[in-house]
Each structure stands twice: as structure tokens, then as C-alpha cells.
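Internal ticket #5521
Category: modeling
Description: The requester needs a full-assembly model to guide mutagenesis choices. All entity lines are attached below as received. Residue total reported by intake: 656.
Assigned to: D.W.
Attached entities:
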Amino acid sequence: MKLKDLGEFGFIERIKQGVTGGQGIHLGIGDDCAVLDLPPGHVLLTTTDMLVEDIHFRRDWTDLENLGRKSVSINVSDVAAMGGQPRHLYLSLGFPKDFPLEGLDSFIKGFLEACKDYEVTLVGGDTCSSPGPFVISVTVEGSVAKNDYVARRGAQPGDIIYVSGTLGDSAMALHLLQNGRSPDSFLIDRHINPQARTFLGAALAAAHVPSAMIDLSDGLLADLGHILECSAAGALVEETLLPLSPSFRIEHEKAPELIRLALAGGEDYELLFTVPPAKEDLLTGISQTTALPLTRVGRITGENLKLEVRDANGVLYTPSRGGFNHFR
Amino acid sequence: MKLKDLGEFGFIERIKQGVTGGQGIHLGIGDDCAVLDLPPGHVLLTTTDMLVEDIHFRRDWTDLENLGRKSVSINVSDVAAMGGQPRHLYLSLGFPKDFPLEGLDSFIKGFLEACKDYEVTLVGGDTCSSPGPFVISVTVEGSVAKNDYVARRGAQPGDIIYVSGTLGDSAMALHLLQNGRSPDSFLIDRHINPQARTFLGAALAAAHVPSAMIDLSDGLLADLGHILECSAAGALVEETLLPLSPSFRIEHEKAPELIRLALAGGEDYELLFTVPPAKEDLLTGISQTTALPLTRVGRITGENLKLEVRDANGVLYTPSRGGFNHFR
């Protein structure tokens, strides 16, 4: 069957049949709006992302099932960064007229599997054709107890900067692909199927550990920069402390300058958070519960917006603010 | 200045400065998520729309300021159709690299003006470049008292079918444009700057008048069809009762078959709702308060999914289900 035979409403019906679960949903897919309840005492957390073919992804570098998964993960990651539980998703798709139905089915399969993993329910969206690229727009709503959400703005001089997991794996995969090389399966997976750290974000927030938090989408330096702007603070990052995966280290040993991929490469989707020294003790238990390494990579200083890095030779430098700029 | 000199964050800062108002907003634009409160006792109403250049709009048929307004109106219209008050908007834009900054400024101007009109606040979004068309994705969150929301599913045999305003004006404008003619300013305005009926929707819902409601985006027959599917009912529509504007009538008199634009033309953004006969008396006051004509166009029948139309000669016929199908 082709997409045009199935029709818009047939396609929506097909998606609807794959949707399961969800609490507090009065009406999901199929009315003018979704109608929803939040848990009492919670605030609503909402964020949205747009993914455009040949800007955010290439169909020859990712299969559509993983693209479906990633569309959920990168969106849900922003709810994790506030310490919240993702609850409802909205998916809008604009696709080329000749888009294969099997491709869309794969995308939806990955999308709905990721929804189950994160315990979030697809409750709405929009579909249309596109005269150009495949376009994906995802909005997620989550919630968190009113006094528990963590913003970007609370970092204080003396706070310790932590990151979860390892840094630069996704950027390393992209770097190798762009140079015609084949990344190993670990690096590829980190690039095409990143995991949002929802359990970690919620555990940190519930324990009131972080003074500020953000997810790493634009790269460590750029995202730390956002925290500094919102907190009116500075930071010192130690290159030698950056947590690197074995796969990353193999490439890094051959080309030491690739440390920039851990500093400024995007799409890690790990959490970056600042912790007052008095609360550092609480991290051991949280790291064990979530089975994620939490690594100290630097500290917050009182020098407004000054972001410095100490390299492997002990030399301090001021990096250019890296990260991905869509308007360049 | 060009867009690439302003940069992504400069552009977001520019938008942020134009945002005003809003209640229950802990955090708006500028963190990983917006953080929001809803009024106590309310349910959350959320919907999303994607607009793609050359599919939903042509830049030579609309100016960008009106496109900004329309992007808000068509989205907010879905909240009106549930009887809710729109509260928060999220705007994602993908634009061609050479997109003029003045064009984006015009779009944002219209967008934010419409936000003020509907008392809704822009609290988040995403921006990126597009290798193809200009792409707009808007999500709106609204709310309504828990027992007041109106779904598509409540229509009962014997209920009277009402519509607000006049039908087919937007489709008539498009029809004339497609035939190289210039619609008058009334028809053009109905096409490029439709108004969402938020006050009407809220007033109807608060008075518990409609048994079912939907906004007219796909055309009367298609949208009535959605109500019939959700309500497991049938309907009879009277062509002679359709409310037509003076501008529509001028064209209709010359070509009577254009009545199909009032039956099946899309983008009216009026409300279609069904009313138990015992509650019809309440409509006079609501029509006066909202300064909108509310017109009886037919009735709900017990014949499951049977949708019939009586034409001007008194002849009954079963129309093909019209409306816009993006997959054709």
C-alpha cells in the first residue's frame, strides 16, 4: 500500500492503534485538542524541537526507526533537564509525497517504542506533505512537583560542575562519518539513538541536589555558557577531567586535538548540573541508583560570564564559544 | 543586518523582547522547558499545527505579517473548539538561509499581535534553517474548567447543527486567486487573516450549550463528518440555510455550483456545534454578547454516519466527503 492510498486519516488511525498507556488523559488523539490532567501540586513543563532533513539528520546516516526514537529522546531530554517526568507528546510530520509507507511505519515504530521507554504518551499531532525535506516537530509536556524543578539560573560561585555519562561520542561519530570513516557500533548508537537521562534528572531534582541544570545538546561549552548567562557567573573547566568513553579515547589518542569534540561537540544529551559542595555526598547514591557515572569537570566562579578551560598541560585558555549555530 | 549576523540567540532575544503578559508563568522563553501553572480545577487543552510553504500558504498570496497572525489564529481555533481559553504558545520555525530578516520581523510582529488579541503568551519554541520551504510549527496550550470542555463526541439525534459567522469566504478567495482574479478585501481578509472564535467557544462551553463542537478547518462536510464519527450519528444539512456573506453571494449568484465552497471549502475557522432543542433559547444572548451570527444549518439524525444534504431545489443527495486531504 502507498501513503496516498492509506490517506491522512488512515495514517492517523494507524498511529493511534500503536498508542498505549498514560494517566490523566481525558482525550488523546482524535479531537481538536488533547484534554489532560496533571498530578496535583505539579507544574507543567513544556518544550518543542524541530528536526529538518539534511540539517539535523541525513537519511543515509540513520535508519528511520532510530530517527523516530531520537525524535522522542532529544525532546524528552529537555524535561529531564528540569527534573521532570515527561507525560504527553505531540508529533507533527511533513513528508515528501513519495515518502515510502514502510519508512513512515519504521519511524512510528521507533517513536512509539521510545515513548514506552520514557513512559510518555502520544496524544496529538499534525500530518502534511512537504515539497522539500522530511520535517519532524515534536512537543513534550511533563510535570514535576512545584518546588522541585531545576532551572538554568541557580549556579553559585564555588558550586561544582558535574556531567553524566561520557562526552563527545555523538560528535565523534559524526566527525568520522563526515570523513568517510565508519564509527564503531558504540559511537554510532550514541549518535543515532541517544538516551535522555529522565531518571537521573528526576532523582537529582527530588533530592534538591543541583543549583542549576541543562541538557547537553549544543556542546559542553555552549550549554555551560547558557547556565553562566542565566546565573551571572563564570566557570573553569578541566580538560583532564572530561569523562571519555573507550571508543572516544582510541580516536583521541591518535589525534589529541579531538578533545574539542568533548568540549564543543553537540548532541550528547547528558545532563550538566552544578552542585553546592555541601551536597556532593548525595551524588554517590544517585549515581548507583541510575547506573550512570557522574563526573566532576570543573567549578563555578564569581567572574561574570568568564568561561575558562585548563588544558592537559595545565595551561588556561578562553575558548571561543562553540556549539551549533543554525544561522551560520 | 542579515539573519546570519544576528545569529540564532540574537534572533530569540529579539522575539523575547516583544513578549508581554501572561499569568502562571514561572519560566517562559530561555530555559530547557517553560514552567507553568494552570488555574485550579482546570484541565489542560493542547493542540499543534504545522504550516509548510507552498502546501498551506504561498508567499506571493499572503504578506508575512498576516501569515504570523494566521499561524496563531488557526492553532488557537482548536482551543476555542473545546470551549477553552488559550494560554501558552510555542513557535518553531525552519527558514531558508536567504530568508530576509525584515520578513521574519514582519512574521513575528503579526504573530505577537495575534497573541495579544487572544490573550495568549509565547513561552517557547525552536529555530533552525531549512534546505527547502519555510516551515512553521505552532503548539498552543489552553485550559478550561474540568466539567466544561466540549468534545466532538456528544451529538445526539434531534440536536440542531449550528455554525458561527459565514461559510466559504476563505475558499472563495482561494478559488478566485487560483483563477487569476482578485478577491475583494473582505474575502482576502477572511483567507489570510481568519479570526479564531475564542470568546464564542468559551461562552458556549460555560453555558453548557453544545453537545459537540469542532472548528471548521477542513470544510463543513468534512468537519461535520468528524462529529458524526465520534458521536456515531448522522446528519441532514440544508443548503438554503448556509450563512453566506454579501461578497460570497455576488460570486455565488453568477455560478450557483460555487455553493460547494460553503459546503466543502476549508479554512473558515468558524465553530460548528450541535445543540439539544431545549437549549436553543440560550443562543440569542450568546450571539449578542459575542456579536456573531449563529445559524441553524441542519440537524443530527440517528442514521449512523449517514450525511445528507438538501439542495436549493429540495432534492436530497449524499455528498462525497469533501475537505482537504494532504495525502492526495
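Resolution: model delivered.
Comment from assignee: Chain A is about 35% helix and 25% strand.
Ticket closed.
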